[in-house]
C-alpha cells in the first residue's frame, strides 16, 4: 500500500470502525451460537439497544438499566415514565425495550389460547406473570373460559394504586354471563413483589364465588402475581 493510500484512512469518510463494533459482533455471534442463556441480563439488553442506538456504546446504558431495575425482565416491563428517568435512554430505545415486553406477552397468550387452560396451568402462570408481575400499580384481570375450559376473553377490569384496586363482584359476574362464560380465573398483581394474599383479597374472592356459583359460573382460582413469585388462593384452600 502506498503512503498516499495509507493517509486516506485518516481522512474524513475513512474513519476506523468504533471501538464497540467488534464487541457487538462478538455478542451477536455468542447469541447465535449458544442462545440467550449464554448472555448475562445486561448483555441481552445490549442486543435490544443495538437497533435503537447504532452509533453508541450501549454497554454502560444496559448496565445502568439492570442496576436500576434489578433484572432483564424488570427492565423491559418497567413503566415508560421510569425508563425516561434513565439518562441517555431516548424514545427510540424505550420503544425497542417495550417491544420485547409486548412480544413476550403475545407469545405466552398464544400458548394460552391454543389449549384447555386447566391442563396447562404452568402456561397460565407464565402468562399472568409476564403481563402483570412487574406493573407499578395494582391491576385486576379476568380470564373468561367456556365449558371446555378454553379462553374466551382476557380482560383487564381495573387499574388501581400501588396497593389497592377497586373490584365489583356483580360486574364481574355480569360480564361472564354476557360472554357466555361458564368459568373464570381471577388474577391480580402485588406491586410490592410479595404475592401473599391479604384478608381483603380472600374476602373479595369469596364474595365473587358466592354470587357466581348460583348463576352457573365457576371460579377456578384467584392468582396473585408479583416479581417474587405467585400465589394461588385455590391451592392455599382460601376459598
Automatic annotation (TrEMBL):
Chain segments carrying region Disordered: 1-21
Family: Belongs to the UPF0758 family.
Official protein name in the record: JAB domain-containing protein
GO molecular function: metal ion binding; metallopeptidase activity
Keyword annotations from UniProtKB, A to Z: Hydrolase, Metal-binding, Metalloprotease, Protease, Zinc
Cross-referenced Gene3D superfamilies: Cytidine Deaminase, domain 2
Domain MPN: 117-239
Biased composition (Basic and acidic residues): 1-10
SUPFAM superfamilies named in the record: JAB1/MPN domain, RuvA domain 2-like
UniProt cross-references to Pfam families, sorted A to Z: RadC, UPF0758_N
Lineage: Bacteria, Pseudomonadati, Pseudomonadota, Alphaproteobacteria, Hyphomicrobiales
GO biological process: proteolysis
